[in-house]
Every structure is written in structure tokens, then in C-alpha cells.
Amino acid sequence: xxxxxxxxxxxxxxxxxxxxxxxxxxxxxNEIRAQLQAKNWLGVLPNGIGxxxxxxxxxxxxxxxxxxxATGKYSQLKEEHFSLVNHVTIEENKxxxxxxxxxxxxxxxxxxxxxxxKKIKAIIHIHDNNLWKKYLNKLPSSSINAAYGTPQMAxxxxxxxxxxxxxxxxxxxxxxxxxxxxxxxxxxxxxxxLQKL
Length: 197
Ligand SMILES: [Zn+2]
Fold this sequence. Notes:
Blueprint: E1 11-15, H1 23-38, E2 43-44, E3 50-51, E4 53-57, E5 64-67, E6 82-89, E7 94-98, H2 107-116, E8 122-127, H3 129-135, H4 151-164, E9 169-172, E10 179-184, H5 187-195
Parallel strand pairs: 1-7
Antiparallel strand pairs: 2-3, 4-5, 4-8, 5-6, 6-7, 8-10, 9-10
Helix pairs in contact: 2-4
The chain binds zinc ion.
């Protein structure tokens, strides 16, 4: 399998300017990240590529705040390590974001979830080889033929979210080895689903 994880495949339109994040939300995001890092669900691969990311919906919009590209190596994140995804066009693989850092390379997968269920407010994407193998096609899974970072993967995730009609759950990313997504009404809800696997 080609190791292309961590590279941005979407066409970005990046407004490189600061965004602000509530202090309380920033604390919560760091607490969740610490729990993910403790499980090695988020971090850095031996080849230096970061993995794992977190996002949270911006109020009632389809915009969301997501950890920036290549932030897996940091233990504590600040505002400057997050990006606000303003708009995406999945079919064209286009993404607009604002922040001092580019949005995570996996932002399209997050967008696909938020667009197709307005009640989903938070998403955690982790890597875990054992859980991925155990639950592939046993839990809801996106197509194994839809590769990481492609519109096909985002569309396959969108299709699952539409079918599931649930605000909280776990989705196995079929075409992205080790990739798992948990989504919920809030971050605590999403991480709890992962811890129960
Ligand atoms: Zn991933």
C-alpha cells in the first residue's frame, strides 16, 4: 500500500490569518488530545508523519474548527494550531480555510460528516491497526476502494452518515488503513465511543 497518509490532497484556498477559539474549548481540546496520545491514537509515525485529528462544529453552521496539518507532534496546542474550515466542495476536492495553519489533510472526511448530519457536533479521527482490523465491515465502514484523502472517500463517508441517521457512532474508514472516525454531540461523547471499542 502506498504511504500517502498525512499529505494534503485537496485543493486549498487558505486565508492565512489568525482565528480565535474560546479558552474553555481550547482546554477541552487539549484534554481530549492528551487522552488520544496516551492511547497512541494520535501522534507521529516513525517516518515523521502526524496522524489523528479532532474537529468541532462552529455553532449551527457547516463550518468547523479542526487541528491543523502536521500538529500530531505537539503535546499542547494553542489557537495558532487550529484552522477554521469555512467551506468545502467535496466533488471538486476543494476546501477553504482560515487560520495561521492549514487545515488537517483529513478535513474532507470531517466535512462529509458535518454536512450530512447537522446534529453531529464533534469528530475524532484516530489510527489503530488492531481496532481497524477487528471492526472493518463489522461496524459501519466506508468503501475499501475509496482511498485516503480522495473525494471518493468523503463521498463514501457521506453515504454512510446518511444511511445511519444517528448523531453518535463509529465509522471505520475502509480505504484508509488504521483509520477510524468517532462522531457525537460533543467531544466527550465521541471519545467515549472509542474507549468502549
Ligand atoms: Zn488518518
